[in-house]
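Field notebook, page 157. I keep forgetting to write these up properly, so this time I am using the form the group agreed on. The chain and the ligand, FE2/S2 (inorganic) cluster, are recorded exactly as supplied. Prediction of the bound pose follows.
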Amino acid sequence: MTSRHEATLAEVLESCRPMPLTEPNILKTLLSIQDRMGHVPTNAVPRIAQVLGVSEAQVVGVLSYYPDLRTEATGRHLIRICIGESCKANHGDRVLRAIREYLRAEVGTTTPGGPFTLETVSCVGNCAVSPTVMIDQDLCGRVTPSQIPSLLEPYRL
Ligand code: FES
């Protein structure tokens, strides 16, 4: 962890420190850390457990239970393609293939140099205009394979 990450972690943990007589919220704390750092470093687990007053096993349990929590750093941009039923029915598989070919990356990997990480996600509630691709926090609906280069190119910068 870099010193900048250390400082960010300390800041987030301080804001999540439970008040006396209140239950620690492990999930909220992990989401806050991920929100600020992009992921939850596994080497931070002992400190998280200590600040929250829980066991390391409890932190690891929450960390491994929720698929939205990640322990590896992502690229600068996180691309998530929906593999929910509606998106599947509207040829989301073709969009995924086009993204993989364009990025030359497989699901769960980051492109060399780190511009993009590709992940799948279950329904994100955008079914009415499926198939859906999320680029960072941007939702894109009715995506077609031919749109992929123009959709992703601006994020290469
Ligand atoms: S199934 Fe993809 S947004 Fe709902």
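OBSERVATIONS:
- Residues 82, 84-87, 123-124, 126-127, 130, 132 surround FE2/S2 (inorganic) cluster (CB under 6 Å).
- The helical segments are 3-16, 26-37, 45-52, 56-65, 85-89, 92-103, 148-152.
FOLLOW-UP: compare against the apo run.
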